[in-house]
Amino acid sequence: MSRLNNYNEWYLDIVEKAQLSDKRYPIKGMNVWMPYGWKIMTFIDRYIREKLDATNHCEVSFPLLIPETEFKKEKDHIKGFDSEVYWVTHAGLDELDVKLVIRPTSETAMYPIFSLWIRSHQDLPLKIYQIVNTFRYETKQTRPFIRMREIHFFESHTCHDTEKDAQKQIEEDLEIVKDIANKLCIPYCLLKRTDWDKFPGAYYTVGIDTVMPNHKVLQIGSVHHYRTNFSEPYNIMYEDENGEHKYVHQTTYGMSERLLGVVISVHGDDKGLCLPPLIAPFEVVIIPIFGKNNKKEISEATVKIKNELEMANIRTKLDNRNDRPGSKYYDWEIKGVPLRLELGARDIDNNVVTFVRRDNGERGTINASSLIPEIKSILADITRSMNDKAWKFHNDAIFDLKTTSDIPKDEEDSKLMVYRFGWCGCPECGHKFEDDNNIKILGTPYFSESYDGECIICGKKTKTSAYAARTM
Amino acid sequence: MSRLNNYNEWYLDIVEKAQLSDKRYPIKGMNVWMPYGWKIMTFIDRYIREKLDATNHCEVSFPLLIPETEFKKEKDHIKGFDSEVYWVTHAGLDELDVKLVIRPTSETAMYPIFSLWIRSHQDLPLKIYQIVNTFRYETKQTRPFIRMREIHFFESHTCHDTEKDAQKQIEEDLEIVKDIANKLCIPYCLLKRTDWDKFPGAYYTVGIDTVMPNHKVLQIGSVHHYRTNFSEPYNIMYEDENGEHKYVHQTTYGMSERLLGVVISVHGDDKGLCLPPLIAPFEVVIIPIFGKNNKKEISEATVKIKNELEMANIRTKLDNRNDRPGSKYYDWEIKGVPLRLELGARDIDNNVVTFVRRDNGERGTINASSLIPEIKSILADITRSMNDKAWKFHNDAIFDLKTTSDIPKDEEDSKLMVYRFGWCGCPECGHKFEDDNNIKILGTPYFSESYDGECIICGKKTKTSAYAARTM
Questions:
Q1: Would you report the helix, strand and coil content of chain A in percent, each value rounded to 5?
Q2: Residues B202-238 pLDDT 10s
Q3: Which positions 311-340 of A are in contact with B (Cβ < 8 Å)?
Q4: Within an 8 Å CB–CB cutoff, is residue A97 touching chain B?
Q5: What sign does the CA torsion over B311, B313, B314, B318 have?
Q6: Is B61 in contact with A32 (Cβ distance < 8 A)?
Q7: FRET label pair with B82: which of A275, A462, B319, B441, CA 20 to 30 Å apart?
Q8: Over residues A446-464, mean pLDDT
Q9: Helix B258-267 vs helix B163-184: angle between axes, to the nearest 10 degrees?
Q10: Which residues of A touch B122 (CB under 8 A)?
């Protein structure tokens, strides 16, 4: 199955072959996380936890269910989610007096409680997060990790005394985004969404977008500035140093299991997964190459290497199944283990270990006496190379558009790109661009890029570029 | 508030003061996990994960929602849960064709998938677990961590080729129970439940029971042997070595956030929580005792100690708030930090650090040059002492009952105990005992205890003892 020529089928095939999730669960869009897939996800979660803890966010856990009465307090928000939430109407043999929503996101669960937790400026900033599952009744075609009805994600929520402090939070969030993306070797654009595409209830939204192998764009996360749009209806106020009562300014930041969907899509190849070392359940797999009469010697040597690697905190699998080496290579290539070590008679004679990199297929030998530092250095280089390769693809996919006639009309056109072009910023030109070309404006760069040109619709001079693409 | 005289109010007071959970969430029985409470729970989860991984269980994550059609396949099971599940009937603006149950436990979510995963005897044993929240529409009075409608728990599910292998699994589970209980310093009885009290659908159930300060008993977990009671309706079969198709034998094991409820109840005192070191967010708190003109010196010394402890992987809080030491003691006693270190001018002069144990109030000094080994030894001794003290209370609460007239009739009677007595084992005597005395038979010891006496009801000679108590 070819990733570039037939991405959609390739993706489903890899998810199944690498045993990441099982889509045969009897509810569409709700899959079973299998052990290997779940392990990768928990490594992603662990890193997110580390980053959020290090920036003084506290982990909490809010209830899954939200009373309809709380859910409906912020008008734009409920309008945005009305058609995609699950409703609990009965419990046991009773019909509930107040219907309950299964969380599609937790603003409306958290903010009534924030209004109790926050009293004075000394309680600010409040910075919390949770890692939970969220539920959206998707009507579009579902796809593992990318478009699900039960979604594993994290959401951080913060409250600040001033808009300026909230703004600083957005910048801290974007630093975390960059760091996570770097560790997962995922390229991204940070784009301020158009006003008609921002999160329901937000003042503004920054989308974190990445280009998939089919040149469509996937949002892998978002950061929102709410100003006081939620604190007003939910009455989240603090007393400032002068005794005045003011509404808090709020932000949120979230990323989901789509991170895994992107890791699969961006790094995988026709042999299977290719995992960034940080989140690989095994960073290294050791395959013994038995000859005649040396099984005991080779076995012992591989066990010794495995122990040495584990002592150095390198996650290692020794595959001593009774099977041909080639068949083992095949299995671990599907699973995307970053580095394979092979050990045969000749390696032992030469006091080396043979290695093969998953990311570029490079094969070489490591001196047995400097195993640990060399492996660590190769793993670091794998992360670097995976980043370089992924960013090259991402950047190559972005096309500087001078005229809309360069956009292919056929959605399946293999020449489809991500388009960068001048935009005066007015909604009329934006809507016209989207409608005429059946393509979505993703937004304008959050960190301004130098641009000097004309609005692609009205021709007015502009210093603002916009990005547009078909989306997953 | 006194724990022993007024346990119920003391408990709610501590949960609030130690900031473990917030019960003001607008759905009864669904509370907000606050940062400190959630941190303790994640430490409990982490240890459970470690034990289950070490016994070759794989972590997975199954969907929250279960179609009514799957849910109803095992008749006793649905009967047991009929009156306590939440029903999702609508999604977006649509009424669902098949109603969905929010998991009250995951047998009916997992077993249709197990029937796809298991083909041959080589796929067995299958041992998986997940750590998720489960939902039961409790009609009894709710209580934080002890009786909730959204319950944080783990459930492990296993499939085996023979009943004997399933039986071995039960014994492995009970070893894990003992280990976890030991680390949390929780005493327990392992009791095989009566036939009329076993888990819906089980062949037999072992309850893990502990005695609370009010002498009522709380089930903190359970282990179930299902035989083929679920594999038959869910058609989970394997092909044995002779090509014959057979049903798998299944077991499950689960424990919940009640573990935290018991830790609070069993170890707490009138000053607040007392946490076993394994799950304390901070094992050690350092309080600087400033004198005149030595603030800088003391500050620097406490920072140095904190760094030294953290290098040794001892979770440490340095409380350098601008406040009186006594007020800091008070705060950290409420939060149950196992060991407090104080550092003042005299300590520095004598090259020692003063320590105060939370569990028994013991105060002493540690030589600054052997800080790490001495602190590790004190923390280990705290775990030992907490176990001893808790087991003494537990054992003292068990009363060898010779005649039912020794059972106080009034539920609030402070002389209420856990009763051990002879039982012939027949359901008639069992029901009569329960009905006449308004008390529940918890079961018979899973690991047989030597007993020689008469059935307390019919007087027949018996070698079996039973336990009975009022339950939380």
A1: 35, 30, 35
A2: 999 999 999 999 999 999 999 999 999 999 999 999 9
A3: none
A4: no
A5: positive
A6: yes
A7: B441
A8: 93
A9: 40
A10: none
pLDDT tens-digit readout, B277-291 = 999 999 999 999 999
Q: Is the pLDDT of residue B409 over 80?
A: no
> Using the beta-carbon criterion (under 8 Å), do A93 and B86 form an inter-chain contact?
no
Q: B126: helix, coil or strand?
A: strand
Beta strands in A1-148 (DSSP E): 21-22, 32-33, 58-59, 65-67, 86-91, 94-102, 126-135
B137 to A92: CB separation less than 8 angstroms, yes or no: yes
Residue A432 burial (10 A CB sphere; 0-12, 13-18, 19+): middle
Residue with tokens 């309950």: A100
Q: What is the pLDDT of residue A416?
A: 85
The encoded tokens of residue A460 equal 């007015």
Kindly state whether A114 is in contact with chain B, defined as any CB-CB distance less than 8 angstroms.
no
Q: Residues 23..52 of B with a Cβ closer than 8 Å to A: which?
A: 24-27, 30-35, 38-39, 42
The C-alpha angle with vertex A258 and arms to A254 and A264, in degrees rounded to 5, equals: 145
Record the tokens describing residue A352, joined without a space.
Answer: 């080396």
- A63/B25 Cβ within 8 A: yes
Query: B341-372: per-residue pLDDT in tens?
Result: 999 999 999 999 999 999 999 999 999 999 99
The whole model's pTM is what? 0.96
Sign of the alpha-carbon dihedral angle for A372, A374, A378, A384: positive
What does the alpha-carbon distance between residue A353 and residue A349 come to, in Å, rounded to a whole number? 10
CB contact under 8 A, B65 and A93: no
The nearest alpha carbon in chain A to B81 belongs to: A92
Chain B nearest CA to A184, separation (Å): 22
From the CA of A94, how many Å to the nearest CA of chain B?
9
Angle at CA of residue B311, ends B306 and B314, nearest 5°: 70
Q: Tell me the per-residue pLDDT of A281-311, one tens digit each, with 9 for 90 and over.
A: 999 999 999 998 899 999 999 999 999 999 9
3-state per-residue secondary structure call for B41-92: HHHHHHHHHHHHHHCCCEECECCCEEEHHHHCCCHHHHHHHHHHCEEEEEEC
Chain B interface includes A462 (CB < 8 A): no
pLDDT category of residue A344 using cuts at 50, 70 and 90: very high
* pLDDT exceeds 80 at position B411: no
Chain B CB contacts of A109 under 8 Å are 25
pLDDT tens for residues A106-133?
Answer: 999 999 999 999 999 999 999 999 999 9
Predicted pLDDT of residue B356: 98
B410 CB-near residues (< 8 Å, 6+ apart): none
